[in-house]
C-alpha cells in the first residue's frame, strides 16, 4: 500500500502523550540502552500499523517526562528513526510518522493494551492493573454436573442467538429478586458484558453520534464507543454519582444518543449511587428521551452493602448490562442485556448475524450457578473486603499524602495523587516490577493524571510488595512537582 506522507491532507488526529504511553506498553524492560529499546518499540508500532502514517507524535520533552526517561533518550530514538525514514520532523511543526504498513481510519481505543500478551519481561512482575477476579470453586462444581441438561441440547444444531431459555429464566429471576421485575423476553444472553455493550451501542449510534460518558469511566465503555465511531462527551461523576442538573445541561448542550454509566459498583472508583440518585437519574433520562446503557457488571462484587436495585426499575429508557464475570468467573464469557422485548428481539437478530449464539455449554453451567448467587456474593464480599483493607492500610502507612477513595465494591482502589504525574509514576513503577494503570486510562479525554487505579485482585503478598515498590517509585518521582 502506498505510504501516506506526513504533509498529506489525509492527516489523523495527533496523539497526546497519554495515548502514546498506552501504545508503548512494556517497552523498556529488555536488554540494551533505553534509547535503543525505545526506537525498536516505536519501529514495531509503525510497522504493525498501530502508529499510522501522518500521525504527529508528542514532543520529545513531554514524551520523556511521561516515560520517565531523559530527553536525550527520546531524542536519540527519534534521530535513529528519522535516519531510517520512519519519522520526519519540521522545525516548529513537530515530528510525524512518515510511513506505515497501513493507514488506520476509525478504530477502537488503546485502553485494553494491558490484556494483550506483551514481550517477556526481565524479572518477576506484580500486576496490579487488573481488577479481574479468579473464579470460584462453585464454577467447578456446576460444570462437573451439566451432563443431564446438555444431553438433549446436543441433539439440536446448538445455535440459539437470544440465549438458552433456561438461562434467560434464571437471569429474569436474578433481577426480580433485587427489585427489578423481569420476564424471559426481556433478556438477551451474550458472550460477556462487553459484547452486550457493543451490540447496544452499534444499534443506537452512527459514526459521529454523541455519547455521554461518565468521567472517570470503565475503559471497556470507552473502547466500545470509540469503535462504534461515536463522539464522546464526558460528564463528571461526583462522589455520589452524576448530578441531575449536569445531565440535563449536557443533554441540552450535546444532543446525545446515549448515556453510558455504572449506577451500582462503579469502575474505577468503587462507589455506588444511592437509591434516590439512581431513581432520579432514571426518571430524568426517560423524560428527556435519552437511552441509558447501565453497566452493572460489578453488581455482585459489593463489599459493604447488599445488592442494589438497578436503575431500570424507575426508567423505561434504561438498558441494563450484566454478566457472571465478577460474581463467578470471567472465563465463562457469559453476559446479558435486559431491555424491553422489542429491543431484545432486534438485538437478537444482530447477534444471529454475528456469532449465532453464545456457547451452550457455558450457558448451561451459568444456569446452574445463578441460583447460588447469594453464596457467590458472600464469598466475594469476604475476599474483597480483606484485600481492600490491606491495601488501604498499607497506603495509609507508606503514602499518607495520597487520597484513596475507599471502595464500597469491586476490586480496585481509585487514588488521588498530590501532583498530576500518574503516567510518569506508572512508568517508574514498571521498572521496579509493579504494573499499574494511570488515571487517563479511565478518561475519554485523557484527564485524571492526578489519579491512579490500584487493582487488589492479586494475592496479599503481592499486594504488600506492590505497595512497597509503589512507595519507592513515588520517592523517586514525587518531588518533581
From TrEMBL:
In terms of superkingdom, the source organism counts as Bacteria
Q: Which organism is it from?
A: Kribbella rubisoli
The record's comment on protein family reads:
In the C-terminal section; belongs to the class-I pyridoxal-phosphate-dependent aminotransferase family.
> This chain belongs to which protein, by name?
GntR family transcriptional regulator
Q: Where is the HTH gntR-type domain?
A: 32-100
The family database entries (SUPFAM superfamilies) matched by this protein are listed as: PLP-dependent transferases, Winged helix' DNA-binding domain
**Keyword annotations:** DNA-binding, Pyridoxal phosphate, Transcription, Transcription regulation
Which GO MF terms does the UniProt record name? DNA binding; DNA-binding transcription factor activity; pyridoxal phosphate binding
Amino acid at each position: 500500500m502506498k505510504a501516506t506522507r506526513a504533509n498529506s491532507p489525509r492527516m489523523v488526529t495527533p496523539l497526546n502523550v497519554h495515548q502514546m504511553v498506552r501504545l508503548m506498553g512494556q517497552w523498556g524492560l529488555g536488554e540494551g540502552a533505553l534509547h535503543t529499546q525505545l526506537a525498536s518499540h516505536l519501529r514495531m508500532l509503525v510497522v504493525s500499523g498501530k502508529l499510522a502514517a501522518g500521525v504527529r507524535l508528542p514532543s520529545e520533552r513531554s514524551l520523556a517526562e511521561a516515560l520517565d526517561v531523559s530527553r536525550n533518550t527520546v531524542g536519540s530514538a527519534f534521530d535513529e528513526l528519522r535516519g531510517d525514514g520512519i519519522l520526519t520532523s519540521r522545525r516548529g511543526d513537530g515530528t510525524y510518522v512518515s510511513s506505515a504498513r497501513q493507514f488506520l481510519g476509525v478504530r477502537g481505543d488503546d485502553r485494553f493494551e494491558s490484556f494483550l500478551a506483551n514481550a517477556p519481561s526481565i524479572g518477576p512482575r506484580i500486576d496490579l492493573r487488573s481488577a479481574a477476579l479468579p473464579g470460584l470453586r462453585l464454577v467447578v462444581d456446576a460444570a462437573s454436573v451439566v451432563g443431564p441438561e446438555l444431553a438433549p441440547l446436543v441433539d439440536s444444531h446448538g445455535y440459539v442467538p437470544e440465549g438458552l431459555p433456561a438461562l434467560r429464566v434464571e437471569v429474569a429471576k436474578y433481577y426480580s429478586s433485587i427489585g427489578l421485575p423481569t420476564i424471559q423476553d426481556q433478556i438477551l444472553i451474550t458472550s460477556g458484558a462487553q459484547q452486550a455493550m457493543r451490540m447496544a451501542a452499534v444499534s443506537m449510534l452512527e459514526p459521529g453520534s454523541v455519547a455521554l460518558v461518565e468521567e472517570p469511566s470503565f475503559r471497556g465503555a470507552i473502547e466500545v464507543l470509540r469503535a462504534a465511531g461515536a463522539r464522546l462527551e464526558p460528564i463528571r461523576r461526583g462522589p455520589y454519582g452524576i448530578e441531575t442538573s449536569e445531565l440535563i445541561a449536557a443533554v441540552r448542550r450535546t444532543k446525545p444518543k446515549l448515556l453510558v454509566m455504572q449506577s451500582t459498583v462503579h469502575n474505577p472508583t468503587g462507589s455506588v449511587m444511592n437509591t434516590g440518585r439512581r431513581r432520579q437519574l432514571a426518571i430524568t433520562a426517560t423524560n428527556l428521551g435519552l437511552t441509558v446503557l447501565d453497566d452493572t457488571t460489578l453488581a455482585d462484587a459489593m463489599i459493604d452493602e447488599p445488592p442494589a436495585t438497578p436503575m431500570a426499575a424507575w426508567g423505561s429508557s434504561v438498558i441494563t448490562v450484566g454478566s457472571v464475570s465478577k460474581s463467578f468467573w470471567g472465563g465463562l464469557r457469559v453476559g446479558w442485556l435486559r431491555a424491553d422485548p422489542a429491543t431484545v428481539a432486534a438485538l437478537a437478530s444482530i447477534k444471529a448475524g454475528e456469532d449465532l449464539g453464545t456457547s451452550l455449554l457455558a450457558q448451561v453451567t451459568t444456569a446452574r450457578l445463578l441460583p447460588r448467587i447469594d453464596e457467590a456474593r458472600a464469598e466475594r464480599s469476604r475476599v474483597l473486603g480483606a484485600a481492600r483493607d490491606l491495601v488501604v492500610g498499607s497506603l495509609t502507612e507508606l503514602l499518607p499524602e495520597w487520597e484513596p477513595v475507599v471502595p464500597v465494591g469491586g476490586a480496585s482502589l481509585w487514588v488521588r495523587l498530590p501532583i498530576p504525574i500518574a503516567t510518569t509514576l506508572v512508568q517508574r513503577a514498571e521498572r521496579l516490577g509493579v504494573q499499574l494503570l494511570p488515571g487517563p486510562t479511565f478518561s475519554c479525554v485523557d484527564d485524571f493524571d492526578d489519579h491512579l487505579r490500584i487493582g487488589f485482585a492479586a494475592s496479599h503478598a503481592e499486594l504488600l510488595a506492590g505497595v512497597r515498590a509503589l512507595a519507592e517509585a513515588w520517592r523517586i518521582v514525587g518531588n518533581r512537582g
